[in-house]
Amino acid sequence: MTNPEKSLLSLRAPVARAERRMRLGRALASFATTLAVALGAAIVALALRKAGVLPEKATRIALGLLAASPFVVALVFALRKLPPRAGAVALDKHHALSDRIASALSFAELPAAERTAFMDAAIDDALDHAAKVEPARAVPIPFPHEAYVASGLAVLLVLVALFEVRKHEPARLAETIDAVDVTADDIDAMKEFLKDLQAKQQTDEAKAATQEFNQLIEDLAAKRLDRTEA
Predict the structure, then answer these.
(1) pLDDT tens-place string over residues 150-200
(2) Burial annotation 143-170 (CB, 10 A radius, 16+ → b, else e)
(3) For residues 148 and 32, is the Cβ–Cβ distance under 8 A?
(4) 155 to each of 93, 150, 151, 160, 161, how far by Cα in Å?
(5) In this predicted structure, what is the pLDDT of residue 200?
(6) Which contacts qualify for 42-49: CB closer than 8 Å, 24 or more apart?
(7) Distances (CA, A) of 228 to 86, 108, 178, 225
(8) In terms of C-beta density within 10 A (0-12 exposed, 13-18 middle, 19 or more buried), how is residue 228 classed?
(9) Which of 16, 35, 66, 204 is the most buried (most CB within 10 A)?
(10) CA angle 108, 113, 117 (to 5 degrees)
(11) 135 within 8 A of 91, measured Cβ to Cβ
């Protein structure tokens, strides 16, 4: 009688490798497709941000979600359930085994008391072929064509990111005033007059007035007053 443990180990190992390759192929294909779509959407979002349509915060959130979407989609496709005995069917089809491996796995899962001599013989026959099957050739992982599209869109995204939108703003003209033309001699004369007032007047009102007059002299000297203000 065939050892059930040996049957499961010898038959399921190549089947498991074939199914892992199926999941990897689906994940890569979905990743490339989603990446191309995400890059296209990122280009639009970045262009709208450059044009001032989208605010900075909304653009950052959108780009973050788009960057994560290919990985999320690839994980979902990798974890999706495969058809029953998909790996065994792929091995049988590629090696023209006429469902030997798929049938043997079904028979090996039955209790030994329920298996017939024909089932045991089918398991032994599948074991003879199990060592010769090649999961890598039975389940090839093609390079996704969407990756070429994604590469082109990635280059375009970089160009959009480097592109600078220039805004034409009118030049601001500095405001000018018609300042009072006061000569240095006039300023000196005012300062001498102020000193005489300070020497004669000692009241608080006089001190406040002389301080204001001193500020007036400084503004005139710096040409900060126009004729009306003076």
Answers:
(1) 999 999 999 988 887 666 566 565 556 556 666 666 666 767 776 766 666
(2) ebebeebbeebeeebeebeeeeeeeeee
(3) no
(4) 41, 9, 6, 9, 10
(5) 66
(6) 42/66, 42/67, 42/157, 43/153, 43/156, 43/157, 43/160, 46/157, 46/160, 46/161, 47/160
(7) 95, 109, 9, 8
(8) exposed
(9) 35
(10) 70
(11) yes
**CB of 227 closer than 8 Å to CB of 180:** yes
Q: Helix (H, G, I), strand (E, B), or coil: what is residue 99?
A: coil
Q: Which of 4-8, 17-21, 44-48, 110-114 has the lowest mean pLDDT?
A: 4-8
Burial annotation 61-75 (CB, 10 A radius, 16+ → b, else e): ebbeebeebbeebbe
pLDDT in tens, 105-122: 888 888 888 888 898 888
Q: How far apart are CA 79 and CA 82, in angstroms?
A: 9
DSSP 112: G
Q: How many other CB atoms are there within 10 angstroms of residue 58's CB atom?
A: 13
Tokens of 12: 């399921």
**DSSP β-bridge partners for residue 226:** 179
Q: Evaluate if residue 5 carries a pLDDT over 70.
A: no
Say which DSSP state 53 is in: S
